[in-house]
Amino acid sequence: MTPAARVQAAIEVLDLVIDAARSNGAPADRLISDWFRSRRFAGSGDRRAVRELAYAAIRACGEVPESGRAAMLLLARNDPAMAALFDGSRHAPAPILPDEAVAVPGIAPAWLEAALADSGLDGAETAALLDRAALDLRVNTLKADRETIALPLPAERTVAAQGLRLPFGTQVEQWGAYKDGGVEVQDTGSQLTCEALAVQPGETVIDLCAGAGGKTLALAAAMADRGRLIASDADRTRLSRLAPRAERAGVSIVETVLLDTGREAEALTDWTGKADAVLVDAPCSGTGTWRRNPEARWRLTQQQLARYVALQARLLDLAATLVRPGGRLAYVTCSLLDAEGADQVDGFLARHPGWSALTPLLPAGRSRGQGLRLSPFHDRTDGFFVAILTVSC
Fold first, then answer.
1. Which residues are known catalytic residues?
2. How many domains, in total, are found in the chain?
3. What does each C-alpha distance from 249 to 39, 227, 258, 359 come to in angstroms?
């Protein structure tokens, strides 16, 4: 593909991404992969270049662009070499017209930028939300140790107890250490939120919103695969992915429980008041994960955010019924919005006399309300809020 054809291809890909963002369709990565699957003529260099162009445009646009062309014109406005490729030649974009619509630059849609500002995030912090994330690994202590594990490439240690960092795009899935369960792909911030719960071997622990089990496996390793670990979720497909992952990781203590949305308590009655620790990794806006999914900020609406906030409060109330006297509850969201973090904890404590917040003991993060906030700018992690809550005996 010529440079101009790559720009035109990126425009076509962006049209798909924009349509999907408006209709809650497939994520950008899948759309880009599918687009190339039907275009075998594109080589690996073409695929890489088109992907880079598309994601550069996604990151540059604050509001949802009118079209893929408008998004690419935003990049071309500050890049004369790219603008020159809009020449109308074969496979190239049509020439730029004087009055053409150009996408609006920014960090996010205006309402969301305002919400981030109200949550105490300045320009440097919000800009870092759109940086490219490195690839973090967690060494699985059931099979290996960070001090001695042998990997094909050198890795940087992170502040997590078993965290390692590699460049973006490293193909660790082909490594023996990954295939044998010695390492798991997991952001350092995610690892730290698990460490905050300080689970111990022999305890009864519930991962209330387990999903595909990334944090479940981290908890199992911290428990030395001893005790009871209940992984529950309302998404059958995601929860079904946990069993093969647990087998590969050498984890045997996980019990899965499929929840019925709105009737979660019925499936968890056997553990009412019995858990030493409960993790609530609640569904959220995902504002802390934009480095990996930058188009996600185009999908979020104020109405969706309100629904997340209501669901988080309901899950926290449910989790409170599962914790034994003297036990603890970790509330985690991959969001930097106070509505899903500090405000949520304040609301919980107001509803539940006898509960109090403990300061999470972590080597990263900054105080936010009665918890800690991890951010790409300050901590080189995805964005997270974590709070530890405990109920008196």
1. 334
2. 3
3. 37, 16, 21, 31
